[in-house]
Amino acid sequence: MDTKPYMQDRAAEEFFSRLSEGKFQSTRCRGCGRVHYPPRVVCPECLSGEMEWVDLPCEGILLAFTWQEAAIRCRKPEVLGLVELEGVGNVFTRVDAPYEDLHIGMRVTFSTWTSPDGLVLHQFRPVGNT
Length: 130
Ligand SMILES: [Zn+2]
Description:
Elements: H1 10-19, E1 25-29, E2 51-55, E3 59-68, E4 78-85, E5 89-95, E6 107-114, E7 120-126
Parallel strand pairs: 5-7
Antiparallel strand pairs: 1-2, 3-4, 3-6, 4-5, 6-7
């Protein structure tokens, strides 16, 4: 039985493997230069299968956020947000900050977080908070 349903394809598997090493990376198409998030095996713009892995921006803008009372892996309540990475797109992510401290448009920075069951996930926190 597949116990890793979040790994939908080999690009996603590679993404989580790199993330577990602290690398926040995704694919860039060698054909058209487009950087994708989530990572792709085939470019949705030009259909090229020639990909290379590049660093994603480690800072972004918080576009929206919410919290959920019941969390599957994480302590609750868990804060989740949508972060815009310039030139890439939007990342749905865990947010490592109290809900009350957040506001739309604030700059946030990448880090990793390891769940109790050992899965390394990306998260963002407000710039300046360590
Ligand atoms: Zn392309």
